[in-house]
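Subject: sequence -> structure tokens, single chain

Hey, anyone have a minute? Need the predicted structure for the following. Not urgent.
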Amino acid sequence: MSSTRRHGHTAPVVHGLQVFAFSAPGATLFPQYIGDVFLTFASASCRFLKEVHAGDTLYPQLEITKLTTQGDTGIVTTRATVHNQRGELVLDGEHTYSLKVRPRTKSDESIDE
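Reply:
Had a minute. Here:
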């Protein structure tokens, strides 16, 4: 009997940092939405809520919760979540990014209307 099953797990438990890596911007559509304005990944924090096992399917999501302008840069705060194939929230956290502020264009103005 493997130690995994001996300890009551159906498969090996995945290290939390591997799960956290799924919340990185490149693991989501975030880079496609923001374009070439990314400057720095400023901070990250998270809570691990459920075990993740080898073979689980993970679904990361970033939700913008706050935008702050600071001169020609801005700070974007996102809620970072990862769900498993059963829809269970396995990671909940927050990221902050520094972005270049781009000038508003005519197409931005039409979106505001």
